[in-house]
Design brief:
The complex is a heterodimer of chains A (424) and B (324). Chain A is an alpha/beta fold and 424 residues long. Chain A has 16 helices and ten strands. The radius of gyration of chain B is 21 Å and the shape is flat. Classes of the chains: A alpha/beta (424), B mainly alpha (324).
Chain lengths: 424, 324
């Protein structure tokens, strides 16, 4: 039995490499079909997210499974790139390490943002897609179903996915959602065109925000950003007007001085009627005069406040990490024991079959000598023979089970094969 | 079996739920939510059965006396708390709502010795409207107070960027503000209907020369009038001054409404009133006529017992007739 994983992730590879190797769902289907054509005996699942591209393969017979080189060439050929351009970017996990790695991935312990919840559904989608293309088999079914179960277990038994640790996600989940119940009726104002502002907008839109206004010194840049987010751009001169109407404001300009002073805010304050205002100052130097935070109904958070919250959340997550890793280790050990035991299945089957023939021969001989036996007596004798075989097989099978806890018991399997003359 | 349910049963359940709510502040637990809900649910069930049993066994319950009135108010608040805890198990609403529930139950127990409200066939409809709407008004003021308090705590935390206190997860400011705003208007409407129906009830009683009419200078009437006047002023203020409908100002309004209610209740409790005389043992023959009061049939004490109770007040307080 050969279980392996080859791929790249945010840990080893740059975005440029991950982008080149990424698969869209349609591409993943085509790739799986191609893989099955080339390796018909091998099961495969292809996991492709923005942070990783991983091919999981499993083969009953190690000889039929693809090598590291085969898988690297398969990925390179599918994307039309030279294998040597990506070879050093790829990493491999085999056997127990591959199982542990998948469990870590499904539990989001290997994610860029520890505890992010999307990865479980991405693993499930990858598995479902492979299942749909008939690329899976008994081994991949077992390992992916176990991975999904482990992901859920880690999520329910630890609070690792409750605390967010990226600044935009903390800004929205830990602060904006404390102030506002819903976002679809809120006016979001983005001042500047910084990356962090755009990332925050992504989270706000996930929460339902629809009304986005962008104000920037360069109206063209404001319009470009607004178009990306289905919002509207306003000229810089109308900043006060936009501020008076806004519920959430994200400041991301590169200005060297605050763009909104306390006096500026005081001028538009009467128009707001003390309506709650969430000011998110993601700019360095700051875009808003800190004194604005003392005004009625204003909740002003700077990047320092958010970083502090992120760090706090990170520390709380770190406390949960050992608990999550313990779950991964326990589940990996349990899965490997089951898998190794599963690997002994064919030998056990042959062993049982090997004893069936002598049993049938002996029964036939006995029944010929005792023709007067009633059907009920014959049945009793047959059951006695079955019990005898089970009792004789019990010690070797128990030994196999015990040995399987520490890996596939190759030595013991060979010994059983030789002792009972079992042929492959 | 229902007769065996006492105030202690549900008060103890709510107290246990409150202790569990407080424990949120100190440690995390996976099973606390279920245990908490079980205690709160058991308390609410016992509370419901207690009131149902009283409604069956007492002619005019559940709003026939101050005792019942406060117990029903506590029940409504507890029901809202259980619903909220069930639908939002992580929020610590119980820390704010359960002390009020227990306070109302304690008040009911304290007023258990008071006589029931006067009732007569002529005034039954107006009396019911009066009682129900005043009750709804008071419950709304209490809900507004809980929401207002949570709003102030939450906005203070957010404004001052304080570290979130473990276990003290509160609803969003927007949601709390909405509850507060609604509480101001709904309480004003309920109290207005309750108060006006009381006026009509009194006029009906007076026209019929009923013994149950209450003098206009009765402390309960004027203190209720003051409470209503404040609530109407708060609602008018909210309509005319837009900032009063938003942010902390509306929370201040609902908390001020609760303070007004507390003062009014203080007057009701401390001043002699025709609504419910405080000490039946001290009632003199003929005083029922003076206050327009009728002692309900099942709770009437024989004259000789009243006389002996007047001589030994403690013996009357311990007598089962005084127990609801």
């Amino acid at each position: 039995m050969k279980l392996q994983m080859l791929g790249c992730s945010h840990r080893q590879s740059s975005v440029a490499i991950r982008e080149r190797l990424a698969f869209s769902p349609a591409q993943a289907e085509a790739a799986l079909d191609d893989f099955r054509t080339r390796f018909p005996e091998v099961e495969a699942v292809l996991l492709s997210t923005c942070n990783r591209v991983e091919v999981y393969t499993a083969a009953e017979d190690p000889a039929t499974g693809p090598t590291h080189q085969d898988l690297a060439e398969f990925l390179a050929r599918f994307h039309g790139i030279n294998v040597y351009d990506i070879f050093d970017e790829l990493f491999e996990r085999t056997g127990e390490d591959a199982v542990r790695h998948l469990f870590m991935v499904a539990s989001s312990l290997d994610s860029m943002v520890l505890g992010e919840p999307q990865i479980v559904s991405q693993v499930k989608q990858a598995y479902d897609l492979a299942l749909g293309r008939r690329a899976t088999g008994p081994l991949t079914n077992q390992i992916f179903q176990a991975a999904l179960r482990v992901g859920k277990r880690v999520a329910s038994e630890t609070s690792i996915n409750e605390k967010r640790i990226s600044i935009p996600s903390v800004a929205v989940a830990d602060f904006a959602k404390q102030i506002f119940e819903r976002f679809d009726d809120k006016r979001v104002l983005v001042i500047g065109a910084g990356e962090m502002g755009e990332e925050t907008l992504r989270y706000l839109q996930d929460e339902g925000a629809r009304d986005v206004t962008v104000v920037n010194r360069s109206f063209e840049r404001a319009r470009a950003l607004a178009e990306r987010w289905q919002g509207r751009a306003m000229p810089w001169e109308q900043l006060g007007e936009a501020l008076a109407a806004a519920d959430l404001v994200i400041g991301t300009t590169g200005a060297t001085e605050p763009i909104i002073s306390l006096a500026d805010y005081r001028r538009i304050e009467p128009e707001r009627y003390q309506r709650d205002l969430f000011l998110l100052d993601l700019a360095i130097p700051r875009d808003f005069d800190p004194a604005i935070g003392d005004c009625l109904g204003v909740y002003l958070y700077t990047i320092d406040d958010l970083q502090e919250a992120c760090e706090r959340n990170r520390q709380e997550r770190d406390k949960e990490l050992p608990k999550a890793l313990k779950i991964i280790e326990d589940e990996t050990a349990r899965f490997m024991a089951e898998l190794n035991h599963y690997a002994t299945g064919p030998i056990i089957k042959r062993l049982r079959q090997g004893w069936q023939q002598p049993k049938e021969d002996e029964l036939r001989r006995l029944f010929n000598r005792l023709p007067g036996l009633a059907d009920r007596d014959r049945q009793e004798i047959r059951q006695s023979f079955d019990r005898l075989i089970n009792k004789l097989l019990h010690p070797p099978l128990e030994s196999l089970r015990d040995e399987a806890r520490h890996g596939i018991p190759h030595g013991l399997l060979d010994a059983i094969k030789r002792l009972f003359q079992l042929k492959d | 079996m229902l007769a065996g349910i006492s105030i202690l049963c549900f008060a103890a359940s709510y107290s246990a739920a409150l202790v569990l709510e407080i424990s949120r502040l100190f440690f995390r637990s996976g099973v606390r939510g279920a245990i908490l809900l079980a205690f709160a649910g058991a308390g609410l069930l016992a509370h419901t059965l207690f009131l149902a049993y009283r409604a069956q066994t007492t002619s005019a319950a559940p709003l026939s006396s101050e005792f019942d009135w406060y117990l029903v108010a506590a029940w409504a608040l507890a029901a809202m708390y259980v619903y909220w805890t069930f639908s939002h198990p992580r929020t610590a609403v119980g820390l704010f709502a359960l002390p009020l529930v227990l306070g109302l139950i304690a008040l009911a127990e304290f007023l258990a010795k008071r006589e029931p409200f006067p009732t007569s066939q002529a005034s039954q409809v107006w009396g019911a409207v009066h009682g129900i709407f005043l009750l709804l008004g008071v419950i709304t003021v209490l809900v507004g107070f809980v929401a207002g308090l949570m709003h102030l705590v939450h906005s203070y935390q957010l404004k001052h960027k304080l570290r979130p206190v473990q276990g003290l997860q509160l609803p969003s400011l927007e949601w709390l503000e909405r509850i507060n705003t609604r509480a101001v208007f709904v309480a004003a409407a309920m109290l207005a209907v309750g108060f006006l129906s009381g006026v009509v009830l009194n006029l009906v009683n007076r026209r019929q020369d009923s013994l149950e009419s209450v003098p206009w200078n009765d402390p309960v009437i004027w203190s209720s009038g003051v409470l209503l006047a404040w609530q109407l002023a708060a609602a008018a203020f909210s309509v005319l001054y837009r900032p009063a409908r938003q942010g902390r100002k509306v929370a201040y309004l609902t908390i001020a409404s609760f303070v007004c209610l507390a003062i009014a209740m203080g007057v009701w409790l401390s001043s002699p009133s025709s609504h419910a005389p405080a000490r039946p043992a001290a009632a003199k023959p003929g005083s029922n006529a003076e206050f327009g009061m009728r002692i309900m049939e099942p709770r009437v004490a024989p004259a000789n017992m009243l006389a002996s109770a007047a001589f030994h007040p403690s013996s009357f307080l311990l007598h089962p007739f005084n127990r609801p």
